[in-house]
Structure of Protein-glucosylgalactosylhydroxylysine glucosidase:
Amino acid sequence: MRRKIYTVNSLYSVFCEALGRRREDANKAPRVDPALFVSDTLPADRRFMATVGNGYLGTRVYDKVMHVNGVYNGEAGECHRADVPSPAGAELNVAGAGAEDTSFTLNTRTGTFSCVIQSGKFRVAQRIFAHRTHVHLLALMVEAERLGNYTEPVVITINSTFTPHSQDIEFVSGPDFMGAKYIHGQTLTPEVKGGRKLSVHLLWTPLPGFLRLEPGEHSRSWAFLTAVAETEEGARRAYTQGLSLAQAGTLYPSHMEAWAWLWGQSRLEVTGSQHLSQALFGGLYYLMSSLPQAHTPDFLFTGLSPGGLPNGGRGQDYHGHVFWDQEIWMFPIVVMFRPDLAVKLLQYRVQTLGPARDIARQQGYQGAKYPWESAGTGTEVSDADIYGKREIHINGDISFAFRQYFYLTQDLEFFRNCGGWEVVVSIAEFWSSRVTWNPEEGCYDIKGARGAGLGGRGVTEFLFSVEGVMPPDEYQPNINNSVYTSVVAKYSLQFAVELGTRLSKPVRPEWEEIAEKLKVSFDPERQYHPEYDGYTPGTDVKQADAVLLGFPLMYPMNPEVRRNDLEIYEGATDPDGPAMTWSMFAIGWLELKATARAGQLLEKCYKNIQEPFKVWSESADGSGAVNFLTGTGGFLQFPLFGCTGIRVRKDCLYFDPVLLDNISELRITGISYLGNKLDFELTKELFTVVLTAAPGPQVNLLEAVLCGSGESQGETLGKFPYSTQSLIIIPPKPQTIINWSFSTHDCLWDIAVRNWLPRSPTNIQSIHFTVCSVKRFGTSS
């Protein structure tokens, strides 16, 4: 068959069509933008107000307080995010306008909340945003314009509850600066006894009681800025920059531009379900607005908490502490799209390694034992000892995140010179001192607290009191051999050996033996994984626990065992449990191609999304933490890892795509692998992968290989078995011709791509392919 030759324009059209970027029919009704959440009322429960943030500061819209990264007040279990007064929490009224003239919008594309009051005579718009790049700035902007021939004054009343005081910070007034008011102070109580109190400096534009658009003025705008920093100099610098941008008319445009770039890097989009589409935009927005910029030299990021930066004050939303939620529920989304931001989460664990080592030593173990709850200093801040002492799986969760980052980036520099290795090896040292040799079963157990040293054959045994461990299923506070804990411990030891070999670092020889012989509970008769020693099927389970072995842990098992795990634990799991649970079951059923059952479980997740601004609650009835990023992260993993079947393996990315019946198309923009950026599109007929950016002149080549045959052809198209439905992407040898071969539910497509690498060093922003042929097997093209 003769190959079809494409011109540049026809080539562009081919890929635009493949990516679903067809020109819209001008006669069609405009599509509702799923990224805009519009309402004519605010939620009755103000906990479910939209939030704005940028990784340094965050606030609920119309709240009188905001929170700042790393600023906590209170010692140990009393530690919580310190309330900082927010001048931007003001609401507007306009004389002559009623509630029917008012609408509220969270624009997730621009990271902006707006209130628009419009009658036939005037239009008044209020915008509130935390500037994406000038992270010390919180802005409130008001615009007013006349409509028609209306000539009377437009009077805007500003209703503000702001006071320059805080229950957590002792503020004092300072001199005005460039028309701004100024207060500064320190937190009342340090996180650790005798520790440092934290400083906060706040500058803000005073808010008047009302604004006026005078007769003769067609339109007018006002900008009210808030600048917050750790020092007076930092606050002044931020405020000065904000004023300059506002005067130049670029304050808001520069913020929008930054958000547009952010969305250009990372998107999850679907066709066929408006509900799911909105949930994806909302989930990604709330997660991204809690993350900092990749380069933030003036502050250390102190991690992602379940409620994000806007929440976590005294007695609220887990006090703004960092848990395993960061590594297991949020990190997988961040690292797949933005490894440069994901490393910020890992750096938090690096900078808190010292306190983790102290905890291990105090409890009688080697290495590092990370706290169940941590804040700014990295010490244990849980308000109940039982969690800090028993929910030790957090150590394995952290190591697992470090492993995922390494497999996706091969960033040896981070592990060699930036503290990554020290975290990995310290966690392995902890596990090796935490296990106990069980001579009856010939395996290592994870049971209770013990003295320092390695328990095993040929090593001195130490007496210990059996306290047990607490698994993710927190209904069980005192059990032995949690299957989840054992697997993450096993992985921690194996990864330390693997990484040590790559870095030429010494590792303890017994780690491999411990990992191999660590007990991972399995019932050979019922062919399932008991959650812990003595578990009886049907016993109530709080949340996803043993089912996490299949995903995200990818512990080896056959489909029968995977199905049995799902069946047994789905029926036992609390229907009112935390929000992230059901997405994990849904992913499991997608692995088994049970799309109807996966869809039913996904529907349960929607109950945790509170209207009108798509704010997640921990529980379906609205109780628990709000802006619950843990649930958000779990939900986002469904399309990213469930529908695509993406699995991060040591030597490749693995794909096994499947769509729900009500989704006709899934588009994923900006997957990052070995420095390359990949876009994916999945329809009922076609799975398309496009390389959109490479890391530089020394490009990491990628090769696509069908799993069924293992073939990767050169000059000619590969002819792979019709039944093959999975794909891997690997780094091949240099100069290899790339064959992209993709399968779907009922057919196999093959796209051969060649001559795709530039021959001279250039600044690569995108790579345009020369397509030799596209065909469906069994047909002519």
